[in-house]
Amino acid sequence: MIRKPEPMHYRTEYLRLKSALHDPATGLPAYPLLVNELQSRLDARRQIGVLHVGMSGLPLVESLYGWQTLDRILSRVAAGLTAMVGDVLPEGSMLSVNAVAGDRFIIFIPKIPGSLEVDAGQLATIGVTVAERLESQFDDDEFAGLNPRLGFQVGHALLSENPYYRFERRIHGSVEEARNREERLEQSRDRAGADELRRIIEDSDVTTLFHPIIDLFTGETLGHEALARGPRGSIYEMPVSMFAASGPAGETAALDRLCRTTALCSCCRMDGLGKLFINVTPQSLSDPEWQSGRIVDLLAEAALTPGDLVLELSEPDADQDTAKTAAAIAPLRSRGFGIALDDVGSGYASLATMERLCPDYLKVDGSLIRDIDSHLIKQEALTSLVQVAGRLGSAVIAEGVESEAESTAIRDLGVRFGQGFLFAAPGMPGEAAGN
Hints:
alpha/beta; Alpha-Beta Plaits; TIM Barrel; 2 domains; 4-stranded antiparallel sheet; EAL domain-containing protein; cyclic-guanylate-specific phosphodiesterase activity; EAL_dom; EAL_sf; Cyclic-di-GMP_PDE-like
């Protein structure tokens, strides 16, 4: 006797199949799942509109904030597009993603009210409005501080049936055509951004804010970290956006030099500066300016010596080629410059990197400090880092301290220095010292 499958078996198979065809972050199907419906829609009309929605800056956002943040962004976009159906997007529009766990959205528009057929001009107009609406949806408190800012581009194409071609390939071809048009829009946007970045460098349109680093045991100020800022309100206000664009534009060295010079000149107007921490990339250490007398002259104008300057290396950057980084900092260290390893504990932690560079300071990433007073695993991880720092002779600086509870917890775990909004917000020369 053949046993019939239990109802639970069917449900399990259904859920397995659904997970293979629907994106978990957005709840939308991958567009190949719409083949049959698209085929039936084309029976009544000559062509269907296709929109390809892309976002610039996503890889950088994921690397900086993690995949969970990226998933929240994709979920927000899906909700925004769904709300547009019947408004910006005509009724009957079909939403999908380019693939399960993908990061592009595909919209099929069978008809537009008042028109016999969908045409390219109408699709282009709809695409512009969709992009503007999506960008405006990321101005709330949850995403307002996101940097780089998300940019949206929408490409379009027309899908029609041709009996000489397999229908599935016609769909893929139209999606690819819309994607290519979207990418050209992004490239045009990138070129405009590169031109603006070059203008910023030529006009020295960069300012420096200073963020104090506090001794948790005495309350005294160890020093200040110099934080570069581009034009206020622009896409390049935050340094991560400027430096992300500087690579493709071939302007990283020039931008790094500008930020460094601006910081050194700005600190001349500060009282109670202490040590000056400035962010550098391993690549920028090959700048001849480091070996010339210009840096020392700028320090002297601020009544500082090389021993007062600490070079902050981001750990992910330093970890890419530790031997080269160690070789680059050796002559600088011999001249008295201090070395700090930034972003420690952000997921890139490498004991080999710490041991090879043997920094004077380990700056623990704020993601490890956040709510550490109530997270035992974070406490254990920080305790381990403090022990490693002790063996290396490095002082530990905790970044992103925002509450008294966090400050007390890290101090009890042996962290000497803290930096964060609990103590002061980054400020202009004079403001930071006053805080």
